[in-house]
Automatic annotation (TrEMBL):
It comes from the Eukaryota. InterPro entries: GcvT/YgfZ/DmdA, GCVT_N, TrmE/GcvT-like. Residues 101-243 form the GCVT N-terminal domain. GO terms for cellular component: mitochondrion. This is GCVT N-terminal domain-containing protein.
Amino acid sequence: MTTATATAPPCVAHLVSHSTARLQHSRAALLLHLNAAFRTKKTTKNNLSSRNTSSTIAAALPFELSPPPIDHDFLDSVTAEGAKVSEEGIIETFENDDEALDAFDNGVVVMDLSHFGRIRASGDDRVQFLHNQTTANFECLSEGQGCETVFVTPTARTIDIAYAWIMKKAVLLMVSPETCGNITEMLNKYIFFADKVEVQDITKQTCLFALSGPKSSEVMANLNLGDLVGQPYGTNRHYNVGKLTSYTTGRKECDHFALGYIKRKAASDGDTVIVGEKIIGTVVNVPFLSRQSPPPVKNSGPRLN
């Protein structure tokens, strides 16, 4: 599950997705040249295709916290691309600062912001609760919108500035890494017995990336996120890339085979289906499987002479 949000320049979009490991990077190494990031994807394309190729786009789906399995650890992948990673799991540099800064001004860069904290507020009273705990007017916002807000102490001292994104069943907050734990603890402290609110720190279950640069809109379109381009600040959507249970190439490079689930009423042998936005597939009977009928049930009733 991925949540994409539109923000003000220079960051065009935030991408919040599941992760099986916490990804932490320093602010000094936020610029990752897009070509390097795409090379990482290409080297693992076949392995990832079995889980990410089939896709349909749906808006405002529930936020599932159970991360899907992945084939490769992200930090291992970026290390193979030349990144220097600290013992704390923070990417310090790619040794390509000049190239990255040029892409920031003239192309596009991917910024990994996974070290920032992410807090999920759910429950029927979540909007009113956050309206009372922060400076933003949450009651005027609706699903798919977002804003900046400020957490303050009882004496009006600033704790942190946060991003807030209103989703169908929750509000996602992005806060500074240093304050995430304290804010989560503070919010849980102010939940009264009758309040229908649940606050969770989901930093370890998710990762966060941002696109920045004049060509970010083109990349968003290629990622099927084009409906966010040009939208108001804080606009967000849920996107769901689906699941193929397995995938393999054929004897020829142009042959691709995958297993997936299709309702019988939706398609049958020989029908054409769309996988994602551009991939056309043909439904075929599953090979190498034998279909057997259950043995007849013997009548064990009394025999009549």
